[in-house]
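Sequence, please.
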């Protein structure tokens, strides 16, 4: 494990961009995911509570539900499974910023002491809409709380990444000092437990472009990555890069769940197709 300051993470990412390659951030729900994401060339590794559920064969949206303490799960995953495995890549801790049971300055210090180099706002209520979202906002569990945590982390010299779902949220996070905006297009399609319905790549490109431009109006140096919805393959990412002025991609299901589903299924099927030699009993 190697811990980095905010400036050191930014320098690594800018060096990658200067080489002509897109930034790749990868979610890791297990140590083996983190190990091979690093070997594959990931620039950042993010730890999400949803990664534990995802790699247990459950839908990623489990991370939004009251099935466990999101902040405790993510911290434990990082300390025991991810940070001991990763050698050089900066590791980012996802923080549930609306958690009313945490004193955030104290919790962020724990995250820094554990060895994380940055934070992310997850699970985020930006994913929630309708009456439930209104009720959350009215009772103090608001997106603004997530913005405040990003601002606090920035002041504590964390590298900060932040999910935003629309232009208004992108502007708020840019003003809070977010280093890397993650333009979220919704639950990732594909695989056995991914979303089925989503927007088109064209629409995802349009929304990503709008968020990127709005954030850059606030901070021209902000990094922007795309995520989710129909963006689930390298080819999809290349298409979005043509449509929006962004710097790369952050993937979780697309980085670990979908490849594992395919790899295990196909490998097991090949073993299961072995026939006994003629005459064997």
């Amino acid at each position: 494990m190697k811990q980095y300051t905010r400036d050191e993470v930014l320098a690594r990412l800018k060096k990658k961009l200067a080489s002509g390659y897109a930034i790749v951030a990868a979610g890791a729900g297990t140590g083996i995911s983190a190990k091979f994401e690093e070997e594959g060339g990931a620039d950042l590794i993010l730890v999400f509570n949803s990664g534990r559920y995802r790699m247990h064969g459950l839908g990623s949206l489990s991370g939004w539900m009251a099935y466990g303490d999101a902040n405790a799960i993510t911290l434990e995953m990082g300390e025991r499974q991810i940070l001991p495995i990763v050698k050089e890549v900066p590791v980012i801790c996802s923080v549930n910023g609306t958690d009313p049971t945490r004193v955030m300055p104290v919790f962020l210090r724990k995250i820094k002491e554990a060895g994380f180099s940055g934070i992310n706002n997850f699970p985020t209520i930006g994913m929630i809409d309708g009456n439930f979202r209104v009720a959350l906002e009215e009772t103090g569990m608001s997106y603004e709380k997530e913005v405040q945590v990003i601002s606090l982390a920035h002041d504590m010299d964390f590298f900060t990444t932040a999910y935003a779902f629309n232009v208004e949220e992108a502007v708020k996070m840019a003003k809070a000092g977010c280093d890397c905006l993650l333009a979220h297009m919704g639950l990732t399609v594909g695989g056995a437990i991914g979303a089925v319905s989503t927007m088109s790549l064209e629409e995802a490109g349009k929304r990503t472009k709008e968020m990127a431009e709005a954030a850059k109006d606030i901070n021209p140096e902000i990094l922007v990555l795309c995520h989710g919805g129909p963006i689930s393959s390298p080819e999809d990412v290349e298409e979005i890069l043509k449509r929006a002025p962004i710097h790369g991609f952050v993937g979780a299901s697309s980085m670990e769940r979908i490849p594992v589903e395919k790899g295990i299924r196909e490998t097991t099927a090949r073993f299961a197709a072995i026939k006994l030699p003629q005459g064997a009993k």
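The chain has one domain: 6-272.
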